[in-house]
Amino acid sequence: MFGWCGTVLRVDLTHGTLEKKELDREVAKAFLGGRGLNAKTLFDEVGPGVDPLGPENLLCFATGTLTATTMGLSSRLHVSTLSPYSGIMGDGNVGGTMGNVMKRAGYDQLVVKGASETPVYLLIEDGEVSLHDAGDLWGLDTWATTDILVERHGKGVSVACIGQAGENLVRLASTMVDKYASASRGSGAVWGSKNLKAIVLRGTGRPELFDRPGFLALSKEDKQFMAKDRVQQEVAAVYGSHYGITHWYPGYRNFEKELSPEEVPAQIRHDAWKEYEIDRVGCQSCHIKCKNLYKIPRGERKGEVGEGLEYEAVYCLGTNCGVDDPVAIMEMENLCDAYGVDVIAIGNTIALAKDLYNRGIIDDEVTGGLDLSWENAEDQVELVHKTVMREGFGNLIAEGMYSLAKIVGNGAMEYCYHTKGLGRGVYPAGLFSLAHAIATRGADHLRGRSWSCGENSDEDVLKDLMEKGIITDDPVHSMIHGERVTTLADTIGRCKGAVNTWTCALPLIWKGSLFDGLADMLTKATGVAYTGAMVEEVSDRIGAVERAFNARQGITITHDMLPQRPDFKHSPEGAKEREEHMDLVRSWYRENGYDPDTGLPTAETYGRLGIRDVGDTLARDEAYTSWDGPLLMEAGAYPRGGKRF
Question: Mind listing the pLDDT tens digit for each residue in 554-575?
């Protein structure tokens, strides 16, 4: 095959079997790669009623169709599973080197099922695949694990692994790649449930391209454009996502409000982080280098180096938890990377816990003596440790914010600002709230939100998009385009950019209509005669399959909710805004060929997208239990412990 490697590696940990299967060419053509291949696999093999932490769940890793080619910013790897954090589609997109290395080793997708009786790690060296004992690695953090495995198997390998959070089935646990890159939505806990500690990859080949000279010319054109893009060179390459701290209105004290640029404390503004920066780094195949390498200047972790402190860490672990101490934020970022836990998920959950504490809904007896006053950074750092180890109150934080509110009760859910278990804040009816409501993995800033309004785009690019009618005053119309672009980025292996720009997410955006440039690249890579319309259809197909997957987990249109603060929620104005929001949601479904009453594709749409079997499966299966978060275990049934970092 051209473009694709043509091989899927399937690992059954229960039986210890390793099997290479040929990638179905028609499936590849219809779903491309990355997020698309994983969504198809999960729908086909993970039905309703599956425990996310049970052996029936799958871990799917897929490279992008254009990963490991000369196209820049193409090193992304997509990690998908039934999320133990949300109980629905849970996928994370991760950088580093593993996407490229996996493709160079000859694999489009890796599917892991079952559970090993003892800890193991998977070693892939091009065509050689083997399972190894990981007993000596169990209990270690991701940094130590990575160092040991690189020493054991030689430089040039890429290591994905879990730390103590995944081992202890913390529902906020991430898949960590090359120490610092994170694929979230709880995938790390699924690794832990399968006793899978790490995947070590070495790849020395490269995918064959149908028209290599033609592809090289297009990728060169894309790189030249990016090299002149003002946003990439003056913002992303200089500040990365720190830019957002002063420009994106971060949440404050569990979304009590959003901080205006003038309200952001001086010590954590975007330019203030330069004080701790010692270098700038990027993922493999990236020429932007949007990430900072930093050194902690004082305190308990003085001299410790970290990488990729993003806007989300400063906002979710910092301002939204009432903390504005940069040293504490850097310490917590490093703890999250080393332990293998998602900064957004743990930050939002701690912010909710602090809100409940300061309202008197929980007290010192519940927290085990931890002082969760807003400004107390020291006890918050301690709570990160306790969460990962499932010690005391940390055992409850480890369940995630929706389950925390459900377990606490006493009105706690009123302050849990979520959509399908994930939180991105409180917004009025409009584009942002619509984006969060329809995102297939819960409230999400990377499923089309920023792109739909051109929030961070270069002025010339934004003007062109508006002239083409892609960005308009109609949030429904704009969201359709935004979701298609971000879905395709996750599918071809492209980075969406530190500041979420169209030019990052969609290569050759300026050539013809929205998807013509990408279609040309795909044609030259694969030999399949893609058109812009075909590429657009690929995105719609993936979205339909993801929504069908969620339907089997009990999701309906009623879950496309608008989070509101309690005082406004129970007012006539709040009720009116919810009606406005649902009008937008139903309009979005209608425009996409979905039933506005169910939020599912119509039979005609299933047929048009060539996935009639998906609709038939949903119609054939029995009624599903309504979603109420993930299945939970008894509090004392979880593993706990490990070495403190």
Answer: 999 999 999 999 999 999 999 9
pLDDT of 39 higher than 80: yes
Q: How open is the CA angle 595-597-602, to the nearest 5 degrees?
A: 15
Q: Could you tell me what percent of the chain has a pLDDT over 70? A: 100
Neighbours of 553 (CB within 10 A): 24
Q: One-letter amino acid identity for 409?
A: G
Does 7-202 carry CATH code 3.30.160.250? no
Q: Evaluate if residue 243 carries a pLDDT over 70.
A: yes
Closest CA to 350 of 327, 311, 318: 318
Is the pTM higher than 0.70? The answer reads yes
Rounded-to-integer distance, Cα 277 and Cα 512, Å: 40
Q: Name the nearest CA neighbour of 348 among 146, 547, 498, 184.
A: 184
Could you tell me which CATH number the domain at 243-409 has? 1.10.569.10
d(CA 547, CA 439): 9
Angle at 175 between CA 102 and CA 445, to 5 degrees: 100
Q: Give residue 322's identity as a one-letter amino acid code.
A: G
Report how far Cα 348 is from the mean position of its chain's Cα atoms: 15
d(CA 250, CA 258): 5
Where do the domains of the chain lie?
Answer: 7-202, 243-409
